[in-house]
Amino acid sequence: MGIALYQLLAQEYFKDFHVITGQKGLSREVQGVAVMDAPDALRWTKGKELIMTSGYALSKEPHCLERNFQEGAAQLATGFMIKRQRYLDTIPEHVVELFRRHDVPLISMPFEIAFMDVINQVNIAVMNQAFKSFRIRNDSVYRLSNLSFKERKIKKILQAVEAEMNFPAFLYDINEEKSFYSSANFRKISERFGLQDEDYWRPSREHSKHNLCEHMHMTRYRLIDPVNPDGPKISWVLIPIIMNDVTQAFFVVMESKDFLDYCDEYSIRIAFLELQSVYEQIMVAQSIGNIGFENFVLYALNYDEKDQDRLIYQASQHGISMSKKYICIMFAQSKDQTVSARDERKNFARAFSDSVVSKFGKMAFLEENRGIILWDTQGKNQYDLEYFCHVLEELRLKIKAKCNDMELEFAICRDEANMLSLKDSIKKCQKVMLMGKKLFPQNHIWDYEMLGPYAWIDIKEEELEAMLAQYRLILQDERNREPLKTLKVYLENNMNFSITAEKMYVHINTIRKRIDKMKELLDLPLEDRIARLKLEMLLQFLNL
Hints:
The protein has helices at 5-9, 56-60, 64-71, 93-102, 115-134, 147-165, 184-192, 262-302, 308-317, 345-353, 385-402, 422-439, 461-475, 481-492, 497-504, 508-522, 529-540, and strands at residues 3-4, 18-21, 29-30, 32-35, 49-53, 79-83, 106-109, 169-173, 178-181, 207-213, 218-223, 235-243, 246-255, 326-333, 361-367, 370-376, 408-417, 445-447. By secondary structure, the chain is of the alpha+beta class. The protein starts with a strand and ends with a helix.
């Protein structure tokens, strides 16, 4: 990666630099600058360097350049710049002839120009050329939802890497589980060394590991073959593409022939930034898409039958099939916080996208601290409750870690339904959350089937709280907790004193005394079957 010498000299800064001879070599590539002020300095050059000199070495040893050309070191240089009228009033003819014969450009540079300024200008020119090589047209983020367009952008960047540096490149997208290659060269080299895609970020064979840039997590891996240490070697540079603390992809550049030089590493950094930009734009597009989906859900909850065509059209805009079946999951913030869940939307979305749930579900907020996840059943007839509890618990912990210890609770309605039935599904989830919190207060994930016959009860929360008020008043005295719990167990066991005593590990007379106490406090008509049933159900909603 560099810039042709003629392109460099065409810039305004170099207008007073004159090419003396060697014009045929002006297409040579410049990657950096070296300074020669010792007769044997060229023995340490690598090539593609623009050599600058004050002429001091030539003035002391006029034939030192001849030796350098004879040894082949001088021909590796892109060109030579000799400062005018510092140590040499004129450049000797035999020196000019050497450069002409080998087609190595010889350039005179102004006396007053500082070496450091020239070095800076060359570095800037090389950087600008690299930016130009990797420049990818910035299309609207809305188009990034088109997968083929994303693929074209990634492939274009990878192809630019190989064309610019002559090192094949590869990117593995973790979410899509898809590999992209700069050309077939990458796969050919991989097959030659018996490497699978995952070996590039998780090597299965003996290897060395060297950190090139800690900030970018840029690492060089090199395979070690203890059986054949002198055999062909292979190494590669790995950079993970991380968005919001989540690794989205692995970017790999192969070093099958030689190590990357510092200019190549610079090109890799530019390519990495371009790839990262692609993923950032995708994330923005997904965020916009989530908001659009949220608006669609709110529209679906409030549409009339006469608006059904409009609803179907809106669904198509978000890639939602009205006939596809979904499982509805409601989430809610379980305790009051100064910041609502919606205010934490950015961190909330990060945690959601990092969870298993995001692979199957779409999320939408319904209000400040409540929302739904529509789980695409993907044709699967049954999902185990244990599985849902596992993935939702993972999501809960990720939300808690990213959103200031926010606690979530979930209600699941596993009855598959299409979008036209979304309103009914949400009502069921609301009931699950209301009843679940009352019946199983120790849980934070509830399922419709967990409620049993209580799922059939249609009672408003304020009415339920009014009916429980008398019992909550009694519970303010801690001494009443055990008698009230005894009453609950007593009713569950058909008012049998012996079984109740056995289950509570107390004497039967203690049970009798506790039940008498509750009859006195609550004025209980236990002989009335309906009143008894009502009492038994209400006691289920007390945290005893």
